[in-house]
Amino acid sequence: MFLEKMLQSQGFGSRKHCQQLIKNGAVAIQGEVISNVKHKLNLNDLTFTVYGESFDYREKVYIALNKPQGYECSHQATHHFSVFDLFDDVLLNRGLQCVGRLDQDTSGLLLLTDDGQFLQALTHPKKHVAKVYRMHTADPVTVEQIQQLEQGVELRNEAGLFAATDVMQLGDNELQLTIHQGVYHQVKRMLAAVGNRVEQLHRQQIGGLALPELEEGQWIYLDPVQIDLAKQRMAI
Ligand code: URA
């Protein structure tokens, strides 16, 4: 691949802008400044610098963020911050998208990618990718509520029953459960349907991928094993 094309693919702007960067001597590979826009590259394990900042070539990006509360999963956040504020322009230029959404007041594991197939594989309703949530509830959780959640509840304007699996009481007002769909406000609505209320919600796992050790607001690139884990289907 030509250097100008590679830079463009990595989010460094238009072809013209990438050509300008190269001509300005801003781009180096293994310490050598390359000023030929048509310099041919081997993309395997390629690292390069732009104005001294180092980048690894990535065909696609797969990111795990520990989303803090108070951030919306939309580009045009209206009343809160946007999760996209946590990423630099080079990543945003690649067309980073959230893999499903978390409410602004929900924290925890949020995946982001520029790979449409990955996004589809994780969010398509027929894929039933499991999502594990922990929550603090307004009222103590009862045995009846757990049974109802396991059996399935109706949600207004949604067809069918919504059931949780692996429901575990972690404390009087602390609950963990797994859902296999992803309709709007699903967990909060399920808890409301059994007569309780979610006060704090945190996503702990997607597919087989648990939230990596990250401070709130921190993120990492997923490696190939973690990408596969996220897609993994768990028994329903
Ligand atoms: N269910 C909810 O109610 N909110 C979320 O953010 C995620 C799942």
UniProtKB/TrEMBL annotation:
Q: What are its E.C. numbers?
A: 5.4.99.-
Q: Name one GO molecular function term.
A: 16S rRNA pseudouridine(516) synthase activity
Q: What SUPFAM superfamilies does UniProt report for this protein, alphabetically?
A: Alpha-L RNA-binding motif, Pseudouridine synthase
Q: What class of enzyme is it?
A: isomerase
- The question of whether Isomerase is a record keyword is answered with yes
One Pfam family matching this protein: S4
Stored InterPro entries: PsdUridine_s_RsuA/RluB/E/F_cat, PsdUridine_synth_cat_dom_sf, PsdUridine_synth_RsuA/RluA, PsdUridine_synth_RsuA/RluB/E/F, PsdUridine_synth_RsuA/RluB_CS, RsuA_PseudoU_synthase, S4_RNA-bd, S4_RNA-bd_sf
Keyword tags: Isomerase, RNA-binding
In this chain the RNA-binding S4 domain maps to 1-69
Catalyzed reaction equations = uridine(516) in 16S rRNA = pseudouridine(516) in 16S rRNA
Q: Which domain of life is it from?
A: Bacteria
Question: Which terms under GO biological process does the entry name?
Answer: enzyme-directed rRNA pseudouridine synthesis
Q: What PROSITE patterns is this protein classified in?
A: PSI_RSU, S4
Function, in words:
Responsible for synthesis of pseudouridine from uracil-516 in 16S ribosomal RNA.
Recorded family membership: Belongs to the pseudouridine synthase RsuA family.
The name this protein goes by in its record: Pseudouridine synthase
Organism expressing this protein natively: Acinetobacter bouvetii
The primary gene name is rsuA
